[in-house]
Each structure stands twice: as C-alpha cells, then as structure tokens.
Amino acid sequence: MTALLSIRDLTVTYRRDGSEVVALKNINLDIAAGERLAIIGESGSGKSTLALAIAGLLPASSRIGGLIDWHSPEFQSPHSFAPPSVLPDISPTRREIGSSTAGSPSTTLAIGEGRNDSAISPLVGEMPGRTEGGVKERERFEPTAKSSRIPLAGRDIGFVFQDPSGSLNPVMTVGKQIAEVARTHLGLTWQQAYAKARTLLERVRLPDPDSAMSAFPHQLSGGQKQRVAIAAAIAAGPKLLIADEATSALDTIVQAEIVALIRQLVSEDGMTLLFVSHDIALASELAERIAVFRHGELVECGATVQIVEVPRQPYTRALLDAHIGLDAEPLLGRRAFETPA
Ligand SMILES: Nc1ncnc2c1ncn2[C@@H]1O[C@H](COP(=O)(O)OP(=O)(O)OP(=O)(O)O)[C@@H](O)[C@H]1O
Ligand code: NI
Fold this sequence. Notes:
By secondary structure, the protein is an alpha/beta fold. It is built from 11 helices and 11 strands. The protein has helices at residues 47-55, 164-167, 174-186, 190-203, 209-213, 222-234, 252-269, 280-286, 304-309, 314-322, 330-338, and strands at 3-16, 19-32, 36-40, 62-70, 107-108, 114-115, 157-160, 240-244, 272-277, 289-294, 297-303. The strands form 2 sheets. The chain has a 6-stranded mixed β-sheet, with helices on both faces. Bound molecules: adenosine-5'-triphosphate and nickel (II) ion (NI). The site of adenosine-5'-triphosphate has 17 residues, from β1, β2 and α1.
C-alpha cells in the first residue's frame, strides 16, 4: 500500500499559563492511502492534537517538532518552517522513509523544532484552550513551488468535529455554506456550487434536501447537522477525511448511521479516513487499523482484529475491558440497556 503520509518523531507542546504541556511525544506513524485508521485513547491522550497537526490546524501557542511527509507530488508542508531544502534533517528516522529519497514525490511537511507561528489556526481566538472548534477559512503561507501546494484543511483535508455547531455558521443557510466550500476550492460559479451542495445533501442522506438547502443549522437535529458538516467537509473532494469524535455527541442509533455514512462516503470517493474516537468498539466497527494513544504516546498500533483480539499492551486491554458488552454482542447489550423496564 502506498503511504499517504508519514509522521516522524512528531512532538507537540502547548504553552498554557506559563507552563508547557507536552501533548504528543515522538510519534512515528504511517498512514496508507485509502486506509481507514482509528486513533483511540482516553481524554487528553493527544488524539485531537495529532489530527490538528496533520491538518495544519494547531494553534499558534503550540510548538511542533519532527516531520510530516506527504507522499504526493501535489503537496507541500502545511507547516514547514522554511523550504525543506534549507533545513537540516534532524530526524534520526528520516532515512526510514523509503519513498522520500531524492526523486520521490514525497514532500517534507514539518522539520525541526519551532514555534508554530506559521500555522495560523482558525481556532486561535475562537476557542482558546480547546482543540475542538470550527474550521473555517484560514490564512496560509504560500507554497514555495508552483507545482506543489500546501495540503489545506477544507480543500485537501476534510475535517469533521464533535460539535457540528462549531463548524457551521449559524446565520448562513445550509446550502450556502456547503456551496461556499465548493465555490472557493473548486472554482465553481455560485449556480454550479449550489447544484453541488444539493447533490451533497442527497449523498449524506439528509431528508428533504430541497428544503434543507434553505434551512439554518438550528433548524436541524444534531445528527442532521453532522450530516451537513460532513457534506461541507467533503465538498472540495479531499484526499483525507478526519473525523474527530464526530459521532460522540450523538445517541447510539444516530451514531451508527453516521458511522455507516462515513464508511460509504470514504469508500465511494476513495478517501483516506482518520477516525478519532475514545470509543474502541466504535473505532473497531469502522477502521482497518487502530493506533492507541496514551499520555501523548503511541503505545500500540495494529490491525483492528489484532488490537481487539490480542492487544499487546495492558492499557489497550483496559480500554477493551472498560467497554461494556464489547465481548458480548454490544448491540444486543445496548438495546437491552435502553429498553424501559
Ligand atoms: N489549545 C491547547 N492549549 C493548551 N493545552 C492543550 C490545548 N489543546 C490540548 N491541550 C492539552 O494537550 C493534551 C492533549 O489534548 P488533546 O485534546 O489532543 O487530547 P484528546 O485525546 O483529543 O482528548 P479528548 O478525548 O478529551 O478530546 C491535554 O493535556 C490537553 O489538556
Ligand atoms: Ni480530542
């Protein structure tokens, strides 16, 4: 399988109240093109930080070390600190990236240790102290070569957050906000973009897409809002879809529907999926591979069946054990739990 991106020695530190929080420590991870990879771990383990780092959406208060290589001729770093050619290669594992040797289409994304000033996050000022929030357009520095471009959240990377209200504009119609993504990134006319938005609402199976086009987010249910957020996230045809706890705020049935929808869209569009969740059972329903995070470290990574059936780490075992009913038909267990006495 071809790697979409390689993460090498990625370390992310946040500054908070004068002290530093190390959110990720020396992460090494490859993401294959077209795979469905889940990132799991308890709260604060660094899952969202990884997702934001990949999308180039970390707040300016963060510092990044290590590198992210996109193995695509189209892409450049979303947060490299200088053109790769003038930066020293500080990563001891750099040579392990087979396809990033000279002449390869790989592009180095982040090299060295530096304050993340170049990545101007839309989260800055909007959601201080949080990693979840709305992704809207953000300023970017220009690519150094015309032939390659910076992988951009919203265009090349679709991002779906836990709270769809955070990513949807409350005073803009559903149709217009999806159309705006298509217009901005695909260069469509408004008319074409609205037609695309209408098609996308059908694809995400929103009931009555025609009236939904002129609806405002508050007129929709949580699950419907999340469908709209997903439509907006895939509107520009991203290569990578990142869903960060995208179903965590929804009830079990809607959660299953959204997971099924994500699976279908990812397969139809040939997208790579990064599914961030604290729920190992949900992750195992969707992902082919699971990476387990704890205290900012990647403790275990393997095929879903291996992680679920023969976890190597006690921590993974504990996550599995903590999930009620995983070993004993979870859906039946949940249904019995929900049935009124
Ligand atoms: N903007 C920020 N400023 C300061 N510290 C932060 C910021 N965002 C995250 N952190 C800290 O970094 C660590 C990792 O947080 P992160 O949000 O990546 O974890 P997570 O696994 O996504 O957790 P959750 O499941 O609660 O979403 C935590 O200690 C968190 O408090
Ligand atoms: Ni998170």
